[in-house]
Amino acid sequence: MNPKNDYNTREVQTGFVESNGTWIYYEMLGHGHPLVLLHGGYMDRRMWDDQFYVLAARYHVIRYDIRGFGKSDLPQRPYADRDDLYALLNFLGIQRTYLLGLSLGGEIALDFTLEHPTMVDALILVGSPVSGYPHDVMFTEEQLQTLIQQWMPFEQAVQDRSRPRMVECLMAHPTLVPSRAYPEARQRVRQYLSEYSFAWILDPAPRQDLDPPAYGRLAEIHIPTLIITGADDHFQLHKSANKLAHDIAGARRIEIPDTHHMPNMEKPTEFNQIVLDFLRTLP
Fold first, then answer.
1. Kind and range of the H or E element at 155?
2. Residue 127 lies in a domain
3. Does the keyword NADP apply (predicted)?
């Protein structure tokens, strides 16, 4: 059964909010405690299609296109993703929320929590990097060189401004996209990538990083935190997950078997149950 069938699509509220020269597109559905979904890099809000309607049965769910993705623009001026999230919440009159972020979205959720700790009641981080993680701590020299070699075809496609080749490079990545065991999820990711402008890569505006970054500040987080990783995701993200689980007091870590970087699309039923079980434990 498609969870969309439980809702009249006219019930979904949509709009734009202005933030530092950019119009940020958002969608809302449901009632209850606010829950914001932050998508991964190269994707947009649609990667949460399997969660948006299910979670809206219990929560006031907001999903939006991060600056430079989907329907949100990327003007050429300095910006911070955490400031865009703050502008969205302020516009909607939301003072406290849960945050669920995947990859880039998880990093934004983490940085936002450190900057606005009283606004976040719980964190769910999926395949999330940690801002400021030192390269010499994350990688051996051999691992770093392997990574550089692995990404060289993508970097060449960026230099050539070839979006089709960029898509193919990303689709060929061993863990970034769903495996061939999940053809429907894999096809959706290909579609989203094919529709993406790649403005975030081809025409980047200067991002203002959190200072000091999250790496040395995780012990400042004192809210319920769930860390989810695909069991077959890249070792870099497992290392980040270990750091998060170690430094955030009381954080729980769960691995979803036989999934890569997007377990929410690869095993949506299992993923949704994990998220709902965690949220039900909150006051």
1. helix 141-159
2. yes
3. no
Strand partners, 13: 28
Q: What is the mean pLDDT of residues 72-88?
A: 96
Give mean pLDDT, residues 222-241.
98
The total number of structural domains that make up the chain: 1
Q: At what angle do helices 163-171 and 141-159 cross, to 10 degrees?
A: 150
How many Cα atoms occupy the beta-carbon half-sphere of 267 within 13 Å? 18
pTM of the full predicted structure? Answer: 0.95
Write the CA distances from 242 to 42, 126, 188, 236, 237, integer angstroms.
Answer: 25, 12, 30, 10, 9
CATH of the domain at 61: 3.40.50.1820
**Mean pLDDT in residue range 101-109:** 98
Per-residue pLDDT, 1: 45
Give me the domain span that covers residue 98.
3-136+206-280
State the number of CA atoms in the 13 A half-sphere of 120 facing the CB. 28
